[in-house]
Amino acid sequence: MIKTYENYSIKNQTTFKIGGSIKKAAFPDSIKDLVTLLKSKEYDMVLGGCSNVLFSSGQIDKKIIFTNNIKDFSVEGNKVHVSCGTRGALVSKSCMDNCLTGFEFMIGFPGTFGGMIYMNASAHNQSISDYFKSASVYDTDTDEVIVLQKNDMDFGYRKSVIQKKNYIVLEAEFELISGEKSKIEEIMHRNIEFRKTRQPSLTYGNAGSIFKNPENDSAGRLLDLCEMKGQTEGGAKVFENHANFIINYNNAESLDVLTLMYKMYSKVREKYTIELKPEIKYIGNKGTQEYRLWEIMTEENIQMIQK
After folding, report:
1. Is 158 a catalytic residue?
2. Is residue 233 a contact partner of residue 18, using CB atoms and an 8 Å limit?
3. What's residue 152's pLDDT?
4. Alpha helices per DSSP H over 78-237
C-alpha cells in the first residue's frame, strides 16, 4: 500500500524548513510503486530530498510524489547501483569502506541521487557525471521505462538531459575507481571541514547555493563584493560566511527568501551587469507576489540567453 496524504504540510520535508501545504503527497517504497504512480497521471511532479527547493508558505495546488523511501543501493567491485531516493552521503561512506574513490564530494550532501543526477551535482572538482554509466528513467510522454547511457545525458554545469525531457530518474549505475581508503577518508574529512567553515549547518534551514556561478566567475564572490553578507529580510538572512547562501534563522516565510534573493540579484545586476540564475527551484502558485519575483529573476535570464 502506497502511503498518501491529503493537504500535506511540506515544511519539514525540506532542508529550508519553509512551506505551507500541498494538495496531496505520495511516498512510494519501491521503483515499481513509483512507476505505478507515474502511470496514473495524477501527480504534478516528483521530488527527492528537497534540498534545493523553496516551497511557498501558502497553500500550494500541487500533487507531489516523494522518493525518500526508495533508497536501495549496492556496491559490487567498482560498480555502484543506486535508487533515486538514496542519500548521497550514505553512498559516499559505503564507497570509502569499499576503497572506491569518486564520490568524496557528496559526503555532506543532504540530497538524493535522483536530484543530483537531474542537476549534475558537483563540488571540489568532482561531479555526478564523472563516473556515471547509465540510468533507468521513466518517460512520461511515452509511459515507458528507458535506459540512458552517459552519451545520452548531455551533462554540463548544473544541467542534464533530464531537465529538458519529461524524464524521471528511477535508478542509476556508476563505475568508480579503486583507491586507498586512508586517502579517500582524508579527502572526505577535508570536504566536511570545508563545509563547516564555508557553508551553513542544516541547524539553520537552507537550500544550498542560491545562485549558479556565472561563467568564469563565482556568485559568492560577486555577492560578497556587493556587501550582501548578513543582509536580512524578515526571518531570512544571507549567511555571514558565504554570500551565496540564505539561511532560515528566524521562522522565515517564502516571501522573505524571494525578496532577499531579488535584492541579491538586483545588486549584482546593477554593479556588474551580470544576471545571476537561481540554482534553487521555487514551487508555488502563479499570480502571487512571490511568483512575480521569481518570474523576474528567471525570465530575464532566459531573454539574456536568447540574445
Report:
1. yes
2. no
3. 98
4. 88-97, 113-119, 181-198, 219-225
